[in-house]
Amino acid sequence: MTVADLRVRPHIRFYVVVALMLITAGTGMATGFYLFFRLLYVLVFALAFSYIWVHRSVGYLTVNVDRRSTQVNVGEAAYETISLKNESRIPKQALEIQDLNEIPGSSGGLAVSLAGGSSSSWEVEIVPRKRGLYALGPIRIANTDPFGLFKRERLYGDKGSLTVYPKVHDLPFFEMPSAYVTGESQVRKRSHDIAPHASSVRDYASGDSLSRVHWNSTARLGRLMSKEFDLGRASEVWILLDLHGEFQAGDMDQSTDEYGASIAASLASRYLNGGLPVGFVAYGDQRSFLTAETGAGQFQRVLQLLAVSKPEGETPLDSVIPEEELLWTHRSSLVVVTSSPREAWVKALSELTKRGVKATAVLVDARTFGGDFDTMDTLEGLVAAGVLIYVVNKGDDIPTALSRAYTVPSSRDQAREEVLQPA
Length: 423
Prior knowledge:
About 30% of the residues lie in helices and about 30% in strands. It has about 425 residues and is an alpha+beta fold. It folds into three domains: about 1-165, Immunoglobulins (Immunoglobulin-like, Sandwich), CATH 2.60.40.10; about 190-230, no CATH class; about 235-420, von Willebrand factor, type A domain (Rossmann fold, 3-Layer(aba) Sandwich). Strands 1, 2, 6, 7, 10 and 11 form a six-stranded antiparallel sheet that branches. A six-stranded mixed sheet has the order 20-19-16-21-22-23, with helices on both faces. Helix 1 runs antiparallel to helix 2 (about 35-55), helix 4 packs antiparallel against helix 5 (about 295-310) and helix 6 (about 315-325) runs parallel beside helix 7. The chain is elongated, with a radius of gyration of 32 Å.
């Protein structure tokens, strides 16, 4: 157990007592009245008693911390158990105990009293409201003397860490245009043409090329088996999260930043669970990039990047899209998650669609988060570019908001009413 002593700090009452002692001593010497000297002795005794009390109050303690959580999502509870034992026979009253963690909005403090030689333990619940990588500990134990003249603090235990990932939602009804390999149908169906993704195997049919033969199944079953492919399945899905600091609004888990990160994580989960390769790009305090890959490991990498990303980017979305445009081809489906009101990024996205990139925009409406700019200014350009649009407002249930694409209303007021209506 690591222990660090912090100095005894006097309260303002200490200075009042010292001033009173000086006045009492001066008055006693000037008048010779013995009562003033008695009062001075009492004040000196109270001062000494208070200092000794507070100096011993946070000593002779054994503190153990069991941190059971190292990774949680925003809104989920992380638990730790603090065990405290009083090694002396003198009771310890009103000890202030706090985990000095870096999690925003988390106090984690409690006050306890221990009889001489006793021990106790408490479970502390910490609910992070913002993603990030946070330090936990050490444990600060503080106490004040009965007269409130001094306060002493002592630090116990080692530091730990907690990784907070964005909240992940199930998005069963989210749809986007797919980058098809051999057709443009919205319905997935069996194809006689060779596509990148085999969906099943069947008996070999006359005319099948050798490139269609599934040799593992052939060897296992003892007869020729051919691959079947899905038509209309995306070659790869890319998620572009806009973390430009100028166009963020709200606070903690009720911010455009946290909503955007949650949407990006949920989209990655949806398509990776479907077996599709997913790539990720974000420009926050630094560039975050993952090439398109499949599997659970890719999802974990997306979460890690989102956990450490900060909405402090200086590169606007209309510069990011041209900068990264070589990543996306006619075989790519791109989902842009942003709260930016700038029409320039819409024009850049429109240029991508002309090259065959299938684009979807998820607009996190900053006005509903208290922003002084209007994300909905981009609607007209997105509609004209043929981009599929989803709109998410503060307080929305994200799976519900992403279950219905935006449809063109007759006016801006109707547009806001439309996206605020439940599905």
